[in-house]
Design brief:
- By secondary structure, the chain is of the alpha/beta class.
- It has one domain: Alpha-Beta Barrel (TIM Barrel).
- The chain has nine helices and twelve strands.
- Strands 7-8-9-6-5-4-3-2-1-10-11-12 form a twelve-stranded mixed β-sheet.
- The model has no long low-confidence stretch (mean pLDDT 91).
């Protein structure tokens, strides 16, 4: 193995979040409220299968063992199943995850599993179909729920469900969510709404801290699970009466970045050291031939020297990220 990817704060990077497309068919109010619009930039085609293979190989050779394939909506790529297979077959990669809006899951999850997909996160912001429609711009609640059922049928033991927490929309729906996970092995994760470059008053109107939910959980006998070394930033709570778990992702909380173990590559091949970083570092010129791997690794390692200790969201600085569909959340 080449040298493990590590930054100057001794954070090691085991986890790559790889975006494979910016395109999405949903219009989530906090992400792409007006729907997907092509960037219009030259050379903005998304990474090809051989480019994906090369970038994942370089990361795996430097200690990355988990890859999350994200987007935009990753399942909109026609070669999505082949991409899963390519990542899964890369030496050193043990977990291949995806984050999806779930719209194609009922029909395709069998194929994804056969290709080697080990973990699934689905985004569902409300269990009320009308509110789901209002938030995502799409009347697809039934299809998404059918996708989750199908994923359990084909043998996934746990599904993670992402819920973006929003004041006056879903922040008081904890009882409904708890009821839903009582007998289902779902880890339901409330993600605090994050401010991005293109967001104006939506953040002021709907941002709410996860602290109130955490307090309700603790008051009702939920217990914080001990974090394993490679775990993500969620605080996960369990309860003896519930099969499901609750996660809280609170990026505005102090020390959120301390456990950062992930790097991001965008759909056009730019390395992002942080979700809220600057424009990204070009990698694509070094993804054209297998022989470029050592140069690629060197460029990433040099850039890691610049990774900041924390994001600057607290100062109202959301970086250059216009919306999370552009680098995959
Ligand atoms: N389209 C897929 C989906 O929605 O699951 C994958 C991409 S999406 C950008 C990844 C995750 O980021 C989703 O769970 C989404 O809810 C979340 N997300 C998007 N914008 C966000 C924001 N401004 N604040 C918090 N979470 C956000
Ligand atoms: Fe699409 Fe996901 Fe963004 Fe919603 S959160 S608009 S599903 S990329």
């Amino acid at each position: 193995m080449a040298q493990q990817f590590e930054d100057k704060f001794q954070r090691k990077f085991y986890y790559l979040r790889l975006s494979i497309t910016d395109v999405c068919n949903f219009k989530c109010t906090y992400c792409l409220p007006d729907g997907y619009k092509p960037s219009g930039q030259k050379n903005s085609s998304f990474l090809s299968l051989p480019e994906i293979k090369r970038v994942v190989t370089a990361f795996a050779d430097c200690g990355t063992s988990k890859v999350r394939i994200t987007g935009g909506e990753p399942s909109l790529r026609r070669d999505f199943t082949q991409i899963i297979e390519t990542v899964a077959q890369t030496k050193g990669i043990k977990k291949v995850a995806t984050t999806t809006n779930g719209y194609r899951m009922a029909k395709q999850v069998d194929a994804w599993q056969n290709a080697g997909l080990t973990n699934i996160n689905v985004s569902i912001d409300s269990l009320d179909p009308r509110m789901f429609h209002q938030i995502t711009g799409e009347n697809k609640f039934t299809e998404v729920m059918a996708g989750i059922d199908r994923a359990f049928e084909v043998g996934y033991e746990q599904i993670k469900v992402n819920v973006v927490l929003m004041k006056d929309l879903n922040h008081n729906q904890l009882p409904a969510f708890l009821n839903w996970i009582k007998d289902r092995p779902i880890q339901l994760r409330f993600i605090e709404l994050m401010q991005t470059g293109e967001m104006d008053e939506l953040f002021q109107r709907h941002h709410v801290s996860g602290v109130a939910i955490r307090n309700q959980l603790i008051a009702n006998g939920w217990i914080l699970k001990v974090r394993a070394a490679n775990d993500g930033p969620a605080q996960v709570f369990v309860h003896p009466d519930y099969q499901g778990e609750i996660g809280l992702i609170m990026p505005y909380e102090k020390d959120f970045c301390q456990s950062c173990n992930r790097l991001r590559v965008s759909a056009v091949g730019k390395l992002h050291l942080c979700l809220f970083g600057e424009q990204g570092v070009e990698l694509r010129d070094l993804l054209q031939q297998d022989e470029q791997e050592s140069q690629l690794i060197e460029r990433i390692q040099t850039q890691l020297e610049n990774k900041s200790i924390s994001h600057f969201l607290h100062d109202g600085n959301s970086g250059m990220t216009p919306h999370l569909a552009s680098i995959g959340g």
